[in-house]
Amino acid sequence: MAYKVFIDGQEGTTGLRIVERLKDRSDIELILIDEALRKSTIERKRLINSSDYTFLCLPDAASIESVSLAENPNTKIIDASTAHRTAPGWVYGLPELSPEHRAKIAASKRVAVPGCYASGFNALVYPMVRSGFIAQHQPVFCHAVSGYSGAGKKAIAVYEGADKPDEYNSPRQYSMGKQHKHIREMMAVSGLSYPPIFNPIVDDYYNGMVVSVPFHLRALPKKIDARAVWEMFAEHYENEHFVRVMPFMGEGVLADGFLAANTMRDTNFMQIFVFGNDDHILLCSRFDNLGKGASGAAVQCMNIMMGIDEGIGLE
User: Fold this and answer.
1) Which of 152, 274, 295, 307 has the most CB atoms at less than 10 Å from its CB?
2) How far apart are alpha carbons 10 and 49 in whole angstroms?
3) pLDDT classification of 255: cutoffs 50, 70, 90
4) Confidence band (pLDDT; 50, 70, 90) for 89?
5) Can you list the alpha helix ranges (DSSP code H) found in 77-152?
6) What is the CA radius of gyration of the chain?
7) Mapping DSSP to helix (H, G, I), strand (E, B) and coil, where does residue 187 land?
């Protein structure tokens, strides 16, 4: 039996990537909306309710509207927008965080795909809070750099246009008012009592991301060193296929001493790094903002909900 899958917002970056990952699967029947009816509420409602799984690749308001159109109790919805990531009744779609997270995804009919920055942040901070290595009230700082593909259609057009402004050739910090839309889920999912200070940067390459979280060891509630932190992460993710803890201090991986942000592009893998000395530790996650940070994560969640190998279509 082939599952019927509809992608509401299939023309966007995430939607197109999901289509690419599903189009050759024999267990999937993609339901494609007629381009002329793309904005028809009646047609979208019909397709949502005729599907086994619907992906929402839409702005928040449109995603909320699409959920309101779902009347078929058997239709499962996977939302890639920000709208439902901390909403009651929705499950957070980052299965590697814990066995409990994966079990909830498997049993749910409403799954919210994490934000790209939030995926990298929570993969680092959730284990630190859960292990007691940092306190819930710990002041946390996060710096992250992403390719421009996550900036939206208008920004992509500028980056790839003939009249690209000179400043677009350099890293550009944004969300200077510290109100980035991912902060709510970063705080809620990691277990922090207070929002982190988050410094996002978009740079002049297409896809790939590094999220970095530094800590002063003297400020932590337990007396630990960087190797103890690495050992904790290695144990936490030891049975995970798509999240891999790299050798301590990047030994044998960062031969030139640089951590490039686009190395994991076009994959669904995330790498975790632990660097440090006697005074500081630096935690880094490296992955594709369009893969594990968006479309790949969405397909992985669907596979889990189907009860099949979660790596199908993602290798």
Assistant:
1) 295
2) 17
3) confident
4) very high
5) 99-107, 116-130
6) 20
7) helix
